[in-house]
Amino acid sequence: MQTAKPLFSYRKYWAHKFGRAPLLPMSRQEMAQLGWDSCDIILVTGDAYVDHPSFGMAVIGRVLEAQGFRVGIIAQPDWTSVEDFQRLGQPNLFFGVTAGNMDSMVNRYTADRKIRSNDAYTPGGAGGRRPDRSVNVYAQRCREAYKGVPVIIGGIEASLRRIAHYDYWSDKVRRSCLLDSKADLLVYGNAERQVVEIAHRLAGGESISALTDIRGTSYIRKVMPDSGFEIDSTHIDEPGELSPHPDPYASAQAANCTVAQDKNGPTVVRFQRDIPRSERSHSYIRLPSYDMVKNDPVLYAHASRILHLETNPGNARPLVQNHAGREVWINPPPIPLTTEELDKVFDLPYARRPHPAYAEQNIPAWEMIRYSVNIMRGCFGGCTFCSITEHEGRIIQSRSEDSIIREIEAIRDTVDGFTGHISDLGGPTANMYRLACKDKAIEESCRRLSCVYPGICKNLDTNHHPLIKLYRRARALKGIKKIFIASGLRYDLAVEDPEYIKELVTHHVGGYLKIAPEHTEQGPLTKMMKPGMGSYYRFKKLFDRYSKEAGKEQYLIPYFIAAHPGTSDEDMMNLAIWLKQNGFRADQVQTFLPSPMASASAMYHTGKNPLHRISRRSETMAVPRGLKVRRLHKAFLRYHDAENWPLLREALTRLGREDLIGNGKQHLVPAWQPRGTGQAAQKPVKGKKFMTQHTGQPAKHDTQKSGRPGKKHHKKTVRRRP
């Protein structure tokens, strides 16, 4: 893998003489108190400003401050005019824009496209404090506020929209947000390395248009390279006439590809399998254009597959996609931070609290992470519905044990209200800390989408002992009473090291442990790239055993997804039966939400499976797309809710499973219906009579409101212990 300039090896910018700020300023008054006449960089974010390493803008701000730059923050500005974007004056170098820690559309809308009433990243939890597609709106306002100032967009919203992408909320394919935002540069993934290089090069006098060689960035390219190889991937290979076997004595280039020389540009390689290794570093891949993927779902699925195969920093090639004559160029992913660099990022002088401007207002996201510690970045799970891998990458970046211990001690000694309980010691996953490929050369050449699917790669080191050692050292600290593990656990990895499960169960579970099988049926599981239930049962056996040995009554709480691409009504019925048989009643359920750029979103939009080679003849999968079927799948997860019983009875009858309707323990839903519940969904089913709760008479199928169910039969919808 290519090496990168160490993050903290740059010569500090002259403004470092002002010293560090207790909190990055949000007003001119605060700037004056620091002795500043201007900011070198202004960061605009859709989140409230919390100076904590779990908030992206705080991290970027403190990293830039450590390089000597004066950094200001404009948090949750009023986007209806430019005034709020001028509150700190004109930045000397650039505006950095992000929607915040969450995608603004995911933050504001549910999976059913309903507006959420709250926002965890806003003071008071109030909703509506950021616009839809915040990156686009904020960037345009920055451009209006100060013409000529470079605008750089980043964060997860920009990261997942760096190419033409399916937008669930408008149900269409949208352009790269580089074009819609009118930004100069897009930074994707974890941004420290890119942003630091950008800042120093701009400070050194370079033009923003000259910054075309920085990994982890995307920009509009007016002129294509005049040398190298363009790999044309704008078409899908189709069966045709058989070609003669290649001459084994021919050159590698002649054997593998057909070459066409463009007089005014690079060598174009068509229908290739590979190119000569000596030319690999000079090659780039041309994706189907925006107009092509917009109008052809098969080409969209093909482009999605190519994009996900080019995400390993060790071998990824640049991608280019034409948007109505403008070329969106995407450089390879950034080189992951080393442990030493990541330690320095987390060791920066964060105040670890919200800005005083919010006074006593509660910020829910801050309260949630207030006593938690992030120990690593990245995820090699590759779950198709998840955006973590697309954003942070598959290579795990772990902090040192000493750095983590220092943060726990800082929480203990400086954070108000600490009672001795660390709420989480994790990250994107709970147990990938220091897990990596056994061979660096193999890691750099690998193009697998997951290290653990369809099975755990033989080259993956699954040794959990460094994590066990960290747990033991952390809980031995003075003043630490309990450390919980709340991050998502990869139980298929955990069962490879039973000692870890014993450590976890004995010391770090507070009665319940949440895990995510996501489904029980192979159809949807293969589309999710999740392990089968065999791993779940292996983990549960060890979990129960070690809980018993520890003398504790503890339970697993499994999470599942409804309406994922590749899921049939029968799959959801079988999942509901499993839940009933195992005594689970889900209070909250998750319906699949197609986030931009995820492989599962490509499945949702196209009906094709980009986990395999795409062709026009490849099988089209079932996609639960309409509101009715999505509600049905969600209803199966909440089979115990009387509001869902009419819908489920109708579905069970259609599936030929009327044997699951009745009043016995073996039935999924009862034959009676409490008055005042499920009336809107209730429809007569031919040849089937259902009883009301009170009278024992056949129910009338109308929309008339009736009284509450009697106490005798009323059941609370609470989770039952397994």
Features:
single chain; 722 residues; alpha/beta; Rossmann fold; Transcription Regulator spoIIAA; 5 domains; 12-stranded mixed sheet; 27 strands; 30% helix
Q: Please work out how many helical segments DSSP would assign.
A: 25
Overall body shape = globular
Supply Rg. 27 Å
Summarize the amount of helix as a percent range: 25-40%
Count the domains.
Answer: 5
Mean pLDDT: 89
Class based on secondary structure composition and strand pairing = alpha/beta
- The main sheet orders its strands as 3-1-4-5-8-9-15-14-13-10-12-11
Please summarize the sheet with the most strands.
12 strands, mixed
- CATH architect. name of the largest domain: 3-Layer(aba) Sandwich
Strand segment tally: 27
